[in-house]
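Ticket closed. Logging final result for Tetratricopeptide repeat domain 17.
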Amino acid sequence: MSEEILALVDEFQQAWPLEGFGGPLEMKGRRLDLQGIRVLKKGPQDGMAKSSCYGDCRSEDDEATEWITFQVKRVKKPKGEHKKTPGKKIESNQAENAHRYQANLEITGPKVASPGPQGKKRDYQSLGWPSPDECVKLRWVELTAIVSTWLAVSSKNIDITEHIDFATPIQQPAMEPVCNGNLPTSMHTLDHLHGVSNRASLHYTGESQLTEVLQNLGKNQYPQQSLEQIGTRIAKVLEKNQTSWVLSSMAALYWRVKGQGKKAIDCLRQALHYAPHQMKDVPLISLANILHNAKLWNDAVIVATMAVEIAPHFAVNHFTLGNVYVAMEEFEKALVWYESTLKLQPEFVPAKNRIQTIQCHLMLKKGRRSP
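Final structure:
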């Protein structure tokens, strides 16, 4: 056994009694009940052979027993001569990256998923990295395409039909919902952000893909209506109640479809000013989408992060933040947020597709850099 391994064992002996090695082990915020330590060495074939064991190592076939593998980096050889083994192991040279991903100790198993680029750690247990062959067959998502998201007020247990009259026939000419563009600055209106304070000069292309969402408001009780009809209905009630954050948020959705960034942000400032704290993620997600569309990504990250902090249990908030990081080409950060999206909503297919596309992109990029 090498001196390095013996030194590692000595460290464990100092931390736990030699006769049992029982007790808690804390690492990266994870607390485990340590019962025994097994030192492994390379086997005669390319596997791992058992060597010395300290503590209770008898229950290896017990279903309640989990063996955790530590991989120790040796530094005897010059840099570049090491052959690093990817997989479900934590290496000492991954500490900084592991902290960023809130790493935990993974349990070794009979089958290791295809590894990602060296130094990357799978954060979502049920989704491994695709193999190169799978990447060839995979239908890649167009990551540069803007994906519009919005948070329905129904997610806050609000019935939109109690705020907008969908039943009464419209007798008057079409109207558009206009919010107060001169609402004074407050701590809630986010005027310190460049995209908000300079909303009149935004390069915003609009989000016509949200048309159907807007037309289907109240669809459970009333038939689908045209965009002009919905806009008129919102305008009629907003004209009488400018302090309703629900109506202001719906008006902003209308202007997102129409491609009027300045008018949309006017309404979102109004919604943010009047909305209770626990409701602010509804207008924040809309604002994050507008800033993302306008390529003001730093502003979009700030706003989407605020939405996640207010309502971390909504998958769409995590997904929206992941989309912004993709636009910034911060793919590792995007993976974290797409994976947390799936933890909240495992069937969220757009997040799954984007994870696989990013993973294949990263592996292809790494392959091109290899000599």
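Residues 349-369 form the longest helix (21 residues). No further action required.
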